[in-house]
Structures are given as C-alpha cells and as structure tokens.
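writing this on my phone so excuse typos. first protein, seq and then structure
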Amino acid sequence: MSVMTIKTFSLGGKQTINRLGFGAMRLAMGTFAGPARDPETGIAVLRRAMELGVNHIDTAGFYGRDAVWANELIRTALTPYRDDLVIATKVGPLPGPNGVPSGQATADQLRGLVEADLRSLGLDRLDLVYLRVGGMTGPGDELIAERFAVLAKLRAEGLIQHLGLSNVNAAQFAEARAIAPVAAVQNRHTGDMGLLPECEEAGIAYVPYFPLGGGVGSGPLDAERIGKVAARLGATTAQVAIASLLATSPTVLAIPGTGSLEHLEENLAANDLSLSDDDLFELRG
C-alpha cells in the first residue's frame, strides 16, 4: 500500500489510532497571549471531531487562558471517554506571570504536573505523556535523563501508558531511549524532520507540531506550488499541506488544531484527499 492509504498507526505497538488527529492548543485561546475563547465552541469542536473519526487528541496542562483550559474542555465534552480514544499530553513548560509558558519544570516538579493532568482530564492513567524539552524555545543541548527517568518511574507505577519526547535533538532522543521505551516524538514540523528516519525504523510515531506550518521531508512547502496543487484538486491549501505531511511516512501522525468548527471540518477532510506521485513531486519542487 502507498503511504496515503495507511490511515492508522499502532502506538507503542499496542493502541491503534488514526494518523489524522486533533491538536487542542487553540481550543482555549488563539495564542498564549489570549484572549480566551468561548468554551462552548471548544466543546462543540471536540464533539464534532469525535463524530468525524478522531481518536487521538494532543493537549497539555498549560493550554489555556483565564478560566478556559483545554483539559477541562476535553473532560467536559468527552467523558465518559470512548475506549479507543488516546489523549496525549506534555509536561515541562511552566506558565509565567502573564500566562505564557516561559519556565521549565525541574525533575522534582514533573510528578505534580502529571498528577494535575490526571485530575483535569478525569483519568486514572494518561495514554501518552511527552517530556517537552527546552520550554517553548528550540531544543538545546541540555541533559534530560533525570527528568525522563521521573516519567519512566510514573509509567512503571501505572500512571502513564506510553512515553514521548517533544522538542528534542538526536542526543536527547538517544539519552531517553536508554532509560525507557519512547512511543512518540513531537518536534517542530518546518525544517526539523531529522529524527524521522530513526523513528520510522523503530516504529516510533513522529508527530510534528504546527503541522500547517508546511513542509514535506525536511523543508517547507512552497506557497505557490501548494496553491497550484490545491487548485487542481479542488482542495484547500490546508488540506494539501496535511495530506502531504501524511504522505511523508507511515509513522507520521498529523495533529492540526483549531477552535473553529469550519476549520475542523476542512482539516479532517484531508484524510480523504489523495495525492498522486506527480502531486508530491511538484510539491517537493
């Protein structure tokens, strides 16, 4: 089968999820600076996502503004949770006084953050927890073993099923894999796909964040080329960007996020968009 026909992925070799999921960051606010969005709209978006076949939601305890928080919206909208739903969260960044994540948790703080996610989501166990490295900046050269070992211990205690890494480089990836199995890597999409081959070989999900930032392989999509392909297919540029990302590798998952029902439906329609070899050749230039 071609990559485009492979619609699912086995997370950690145990849980089958659809490769096109949903990112929850924009449910509560457009940006970390705010303002907060209408919670009822967020609830409607989540419920519609489930109706359209989403069974993988990516969230974080620091996704929120004022009284509106993504985890609370997920719990309100979707409990009791479907058996096939995988909720991924990430720990590491700490919100500053203005609500924008600007700090980074220490190893001693990680258990509290995981327990807070369990409470806010109303779960006894988290499906997937990423250690987000470097706060909200790019990956640095810091060591992560001490912090990842805390999450590995929580996994051994049964509070986490799968472990992931976000915003990491190759050395940090290797450092973590020497401690415990890594089920998913979440790095920035545009220009940062260097770990994809290793993830593909090991059966580790590669989940680019900001998936609509464009990009096939290691470089960004050209706006003119993506526009031409979209016009020829009668699709939107967002749909072509998502479909091209999914065509990169069967281990790649896409998590486009939105706080709009209209954009949700547009994004998820990319699951039915087929790109030919000629389309992909043109997109890659």
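second protein below, same order as before
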Amino acid sequence: MKKNIILLCITALFILSCNKKKNTKETTVLNDNVTIEKPLSKGDSIVNSAIMAHGGKLFDKADFSFNFREKIYRFENDGTQYSYSSESQKGDSLVKDIMTSGKFDRTINNKLQTLSKEEADRYSEALNSVIYFATLPYKLQDASVHKKYIEQKTIKSKKYDVIQVTFGQEGGGKDFDDEYMYWINKNTHKIDYLAYNYHVNEGGVRFRAAFNTRVIDGITFQDYINYEAPVGTDLKDLSSLYEQEKLKKLSNILTENVVNNHK
C-alpha cells in the first residue's frame, strides 16, 4: 500500500513538471512536420498568463455582443477563423459592417455597398480596433506581436509587470509602428493599465486605467478611463504621471450590455 502511494506521488510530480515546462516553451510546427520547441521569453510568459486570467481558451469559441458609442458590436471566434461586426442606425439607414477572417463588407439597409480600398481599409481598421481593445489581451498571442519585459512597477501600492508590445510589419496592420505598454497585475495577472502611442493625424499618446472589471461566463470585460499625454512622452513615464494626476482625462471607454450569444 505504501509503495503504491509513493508511486502515485512520483507520477503526480512528473505530470506537474511536464505541464510547467510546457507553459514555458513555445512550439513551432514547420511545413515538413518538424516540431521545434524554444523557451518563452519573460514577456511572452507574462502575457500568456494574462490571457489565461482574462479567459484563456474560452476566447477561441467565444461569441459575444456589446454596445459601444451607439453601435452594437459582435465578435464570433472559431479557432483561427473569426467574424467581427457592427451595426448602427443613421436616420432611416441601418449600416452594418462585417469582417470575416480579413474580408470586409458594408451593407446599408441590407444592400451591399461598393467601397474603394481606402474606405474598406478605414472601416475595417475602426471595427478591428474596437474588438481588439474589448477582447484584450486575447489578440496579443498573434504571431506579429512582439513582447518585451521592461520592469516591475508599483502603482497605488500594487505591483505590476510592465510589458512593451510592438508589431511586425507583416500581419501587424496599417499602424504596425505603433507602440503599446501594459501594466499586468502580479497578483491577479490581469491588465489594470495600458498605454499606446500612434502616428496618424499628427500623433498622440494615451493612457488607460481599467475599472468596472467583471467576468461574464468566464471571460473578463473591462471599462477604461482614457487619458492624454503630450506627444513624445515616454510610455514608461505614464504610470508615474497618472499617480501624480498630471494626465488629462479625455473620455470613458465603456463596453456596455455585454451578451453571451451562446446562451
């Protein structure tokens, strides 16, 4: 009996060890089915923990709707396939945008519109941006995302891992040269603060503080207070400026009336 208990303990320890190693490695399968494993960077590992804390694998099959700035948005994920959509009423016109795995269409009163490339790019970027922020940090696992651990920071007596995110030109979208920074709570592993800079329209710097964090059927949704900083401000400095109340509040970013469409 004692030998059996010892054997069970050894087996359990072995399984735990394997799982721990799996969570610290990145697996790549090449075209000829050769598998390559390499250790995850500290940034990748921290972001992976954040993805798990916010919903993890539940995102892969998620289908949710929500309201944002007088529009109804929906994201439907099915593994590597997805469908993002929005609809809004403008006078007598019902405008619907839909992007299915990269293909974008707009209809007005259910009639398909002919769009220039510039229009399609602009509308699809706007749609993708809203879904991107609403489902953070899910999209940070994309291959075009580069994550770098910066430092540990304390904000309002809570400790955070600070992660810088940049994008590769291939697959990184139109604004691939934008820079993001995330403050990930070391205790909850959730994103409490984020910042980014952008270069279009003469550029800008933004800092967001999460509030109204809630978990809906296993997936975390958050609202944000949106702040502005002078162009050129280093993203690393924003958390200190926030604590010193030196940032200008611009708006509230509200993801409202969240509905799980699987129910």
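Confidence is low (pLDDT under 50) at residues 1-23. thats all i got for now
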